[in-house]
Amino acid sequence: MRPGTFAILFTRFFLHSKFSQAKNILLLTAVFTFVQSAIAQQDEYKKVITERSVKIINTLHITDSGKYTDVLDIVAEQYFQLNMIHEADKAAVEAIKKQSYEKEELDKAMKEQQEKKMQLLAQLHLKFIALLEDQLTQEQIEKIKDGMTYGVLPVTWAAYQDMLPQLTTVQKAQIYTWLKEARELAMDEGSSEKKHAVFGKYKGRINNYLSAAGYNMKKEGEEWQKRIKEREATTKQTQQ
Fold first, then answer.
1. How far apart are CA 25 and CA 28, in angstroms?
2. What distance in Å separates the CA atoms of residue 149 and residue 134, rounded to the nearest whole number?
3. Which of the residue ranges 5-14, 56-65, 158-167 would you say has the lowest mean pLDDT?
């Protein structure tokens, strides 16, 4: 989604807003100011996201040069469009905060803006996955998803299984389902911190679920750390 296209989408959102025309104009001005700035920074940012995308695509071991280029373009464009959405949202939020809203009106405006952003992200996410499915296997798509989220899912999934080998089949299935849900949401976030924050939220949900099932998560965690240290000590002795 190019800056001009994105501006048109936001224009449509604001024109359907219930707020006054003057306030909508101020919001639109903020968005278009952002768009102009974004155009000037596109080349530099595209270089960064292309390099980031190359690292992810290289893990797929695609031998067809044409497919490699197509997939690289898809992933890089996804990063570009995600950045456009998040930066435009920041501009809109700042514009809203500068208005002389009463608390109730401010809360409503902020909620509406959040809903607009989430709608755009959801649409973009579905399109991205559809494009990948036209080019790749499900296993390769999984690698792209993990690459875009720093491999948090497989690392966390392995950690829970190692920490709690007594997990039931049902419990494992629930944990994995939540981790996959977290990954889908984290893919659409605009920074490393926010991606990890999404997983942090879901880890809290998982820990609450396990605590309700009778696990003492603090004790289990402490015992797990002891086992890790014992394994490391054993490995070190073996290598000597």
1. 5
2. 22
3. 5-14
Write the single-letter amino acid at 39: I
Give, in degrees to the nearest 5, the angle at Cα 236 between 233 and 239.
Answer: 150
Residues 215, 234: contact at Cβ < 8 Å? no
Q: What is the largest CA-CA distance in the chain?
A: 75
- What single string gives the DSSP state of each residue in the chain? --HHHHHHHHHHHHHT-SS-HHHHHHHHHHHHHHHHHHHHHHHHHHHHHHHHHHHHHGGG----HHHHHHHHHHHHHHHHHHHHHHHHHHHHHHHHHTS---HHHHHHHHHHHHHHHHHHHHHHHHHHHHHHHTTS-HHHHHHHHHHHTTTHHHHHHHHHHHH-TT--HHHHHHHHHHHHHHHHHHTT-SSHHHHHHHHHHHHHHHHHHHHHTT--HHHHHHHHHHHHHHHHHHHHHHH-
User: Distance (Å, rounded) from C-alpha 38 to C-alpha 118?
Assistant: 21
Q: Which two tokens stand for residue 166?
A: 């007594």
Give the mean pLDDT of 71-91. Answer: 95
How many CB atoms are closer than 10 A to CB 9? 18
- Per-residue confidence at 43, pLDDT binned at 50, 70, 90? confident
CA 152 to the chain's CA centroid:
11
Q: Indicate the domain borders of the chain.
A: 3-136, 149-239
Task: Examine the pLDDT at 31 and tell me if it is beyond 90.
Answer: no
- Residue 114 one-letter amino acid: Q
pTM, rounded to two decimals: 0.79
Distance CA 141, CA 132 (A): 7
* Cα–Cα distance for residue pair 237/101, rounded to 1 Å: 66
